[in-house]
Amino acid sequence: MKKGWTNQRVEDNLRKLPVIQDKRPENELYQKVVKGLEEETDRKNKRSWKSWLIPSLATLAVLLLIAVIGQSALRIDYFTTQEDVADTYSNEAKKSEQAEVMEEESQSATSLPAEQSESADEEAIVKEAEEPVSKAVYTDSDKKTAFDVSIPIEGNGYLVPLTYQTENTSERIESTLNQLDDLLDPQAIGLPSNLLQGVTFEIDKSNGIAIVDFPADFNFEDEAFTGNVGTVLSRLFLPLEINQVKLQINGNPGIPIATKGEVIDSLPLKQPGSYVYKVYQKQEDTTPFLAAVPVAIDNDIEAAFYEMRKEEPDNNLKATIPSGVSFRVQKSEKQVSVNLSGPVANDQKTLDMLEAMMMTAKSFGYQKIKFHVPESRIGPYDNLEEPLEVPDGINGQ
Amino acid sequence: MKAVFQDLYKKYHQDLYQFLIYMTKDKEQAEDLVQEVYIKVLKSIHTFKGESSEKTWLFSIARHVAIDYFRKQSNKRKRILDFFDWGERGEQLEDQSILPEEIAEQNEEMRQIYRCLDKCSLDQKSVIILRYIQSFSLKETAETLGWSISKVKTTQHRAIKALRQLLQQEYGEEGDIQ
Lengths: 397, 178
Fold this sequence. Notes:
With 397 residues, chain A is of the alpha+beta class.
């Protein structure tokens, strides 16, 4: 019986494609690899020999020229007859000839390395091989939604948003939120604890309501909690079109707010202010994240980008726009256009810069960002000719 | 150096080779490329910062080596086509490469899939090989390709659709299976 091609049939067959093995002995391959490495080293040595010899000759020529110029200057001081002046002119002519020779030599020294640049290319490939990893999240269908669980870090109001994707229904959102304690182990990835550890959620999207239920032993006096709970819940729920949050402890309405000395049973959500994004990395061996840093800047994306140049070592934050990179910004209503120049490459630093700029632009109300860069591809962004949509989230989980 | 090589060989060699042979569809080429991967890896192992896993780092190098090979092949092919002035007709020339024996032994349906895989875009082909043939997780695939997990999912979905359409175009709606 014939059956049509279906996605399932294609997938099943792909999984059944045979294992293809290399039957060469391990040692034979090793010998070839060693030989290849030796040949590369030989090539490099030859290059390095050429690379110092020619610049050295050029330097020698410069020294010689200085000596000649020095001599002719002395002669101008001592002799002032027409003949001497003519002699000086002729020296000048020689000097200019020599300068040309020197320039040619120095040009050949700088352009020398056709081979050297080839070797730089090869090294670039090896470097590039550690392909930059995107931190941006784009939901891949209209049926899906993304929400942020924000982890407060060092610094007042500083957060690392972790984005989760789920189907855009109350049930799926609720189920994902209630699995957070299993899904998320902040310490294991170099982050402080999740403010909402042990909390359970009920979501009613149709009425825009969420019930947040804290365990009986929850520490409401924790400074990180009192300082950030409003922002964390606002950042979580407002993008999900939930505007009302009911707070309870073990099913009983109301939670104590230590700073106010009162019990509240609901929390007004408000749009968080503006953020710029920087790289947060607790230690060298922990995962780097893009962190949201609150800024008191309104409607000035350029000023926000300048903020992104600032290092904050005390808060374990690294600048996302390197000082060597300069930028020009043009704005329209929903789109920002950024012209970047300086050390821009297809590497992690540049990708972090681009994604930090996109998230910052999003925080400032822009929907698209167009980068003018000398690279055609940076990380997953392989069509930089076109403006990019700002991401749905960051630090995808 | 030998110990590093032996360790990598033991852990990843057959998978690396398999990845390259499905990428290039050429046994000899895959042998040369796998050798090139080791040379690059041994030269740059000191720069490996552990930001990704060793496995995904190795495969991302393998993918770049393959891409580099395709780029050179494409330039060579273009020069030949220009020289003979074949233009578009040259692009339509049938792929006559010899099937690896492991594929030749399979049924017609598997051979069709193997042939059509080569007509997918490089990104689609990479995702399919990593996800279905190498059984990489979404996270491993994302790390290897330097993409977000959502991009892997989207590309995977599109790749399967593209492959299905190619199979329908090349071999008819039903395929050749009785």
